[in-house]
Design goal:
Length: 355
């Protein structure tokens, strides 16, 4: 017996051939130049194309199709979409299966990366992390328009994401109706009074017991660590990164919304967080929301961060504003629902294609 090199693709279950196409691009951003964290300007951009959809270079006369921009969760990088759970297709394979079965209409699906050295950027502009909304809205969208046969206008574009990605989908659809005409959010960050403020006392205890009560010590130890331990760093990092996005100080450094000694909420700082909360933003952007052709909210009933309640509050606010939308609670927690994303994208594409 002997082991020999095999020719050709590896094949299932490691490498399932796609019916459509997948472009693994690297792009350089001007919007992220001089970002305060010194994070890379060159980013991955993954573009899944359903069967028959090719780049404009390959097929300049192709009919225009919808485009969906997928935003990743906090503590994720875009290349994690290639990860495979046991007996489970990757998200690209699941989308491809829907396309092959006719459940996903012709489209382009763009996986956007907003990773930062703090774990994420919330897909907004902030002097604490950088101009990630500009990157998404004013660089990625025009780039895709120039490269692929997509509908040129918000009526053909949607946003989808989970957790921080769901937050980015909601907020950018509200703030940039000139870019997007639909969104789907699974457990997107919302209702900060319920989903984030309850963590303030626990974070103060972690800071006291593990980092001598000093955020400077926490930041230094996190930066010097040779591996990421969620039990040690996760809670404080989540709040610190959120503060970098929502409440940077005049020097760009994050200002925490709680007293680090007692965990008590600091109303003035937390008010700046609430100004970015989708539940609070909705009324100020009711016209933009009313103009969307597809709005979907969902979350697991056992969401550990209470983002099921956040989704419920967002749905209630949309109902109050008269915004047509769908809302679903499913059995499960914050994670483990990646299989729902392709189905949600397919529903959004149907809505965009029918406009």
């Amino acid at each position: 017996m002997a082991l020999t090199l095999a020719d050709g693709p590896l094949g299932p279950p490691w490498q399932n051939p796609l019916h459509g196409g997948l472009d693994r691009l690297h792009v350089r951003s001007d919007a992220l130049a001089d970002n305060p964290l010194g994070d890379p300007l060159v980013r991955p951009l993954y573009v899944y194309r359903t069967a028959g959809v090719r780049s404009l270079t390959e097929d300049p006369g192709a009919p225009a199709v919808p485009a969906v921009f997928v935003l990743q969760a906090f503590l994720n990088q875009a290349d994690r979409w290639f990860n495979r759970d046991v007996f489970t297709p990757t998200v690209f394979e699941a989308l491809d299966s829907l396309s092959r079965d006719g459940a996903l209409a012709p489209c382009v699906i763009v996986f956007v990366d907003a990773w930062t050295s703090l774990g994420g950027a919330q897909f907004i502009n902030s002097p604490g992390v950088g101009n990630y909304a500009d990157y998404l809205c004013d660089e990625v969208v025009p780039f895709i328009d120039a490269q692929y046969p997509v509908i040129d206008g918000p009526e053909g574009r949607g946003l989808a994401g989970h957790s921080s990605g769901g937050y980015g989908a909601m907020v950018n659809a509200m703030l940039r109706p000139d870019r997007f005409g639909a969104f789907s959010s699974r457990a997107g960050d919302a209702l900060f009074e319920v989903s984030m403020a309850p963590d303030f006392p626990a974070a103060a205890k972690v800071l006291r017991d593990r980092f001598d009560g000093s955020m400077e010590t926490f930041v230094a130890e996190f930066a010097a660590a040779d591996r990421f331990e969620y039990r040690r760093f996760g809670l404080l990092l989540t709040l610190y990164a959120a503060a970098a996005a929502y409440s940077p100080g005049p020097d760009g450094r994050p200002e925490l919304p709680f007293d680090p000694r007692t965990g008590q909420t600091l109303p003035d700082v937390f008010a700046r967080w609430l100004a970015w909360d989708p539940v609070h933003l909705a009324a100020r952007h009711a016209d933009a929301l009313a103009g969307l052709c597809h709005v979907h909210l969902e979350a697991g009933r056992a969401d550990e961060a209470n983002l099921d309640l956040g989704a419920q509050a967002m749905s209630d606010e949309l109902t109050r504003l008269g915004v047509t939308h769908s809302f679903e609670l499913f059995e499960g927690g914050h994670g483990g629902g990646a299989h729902r994303l392709p189905v949600a994208i397919a529903a959004m594409v149907r809505a965009l294609a029918s406009r």
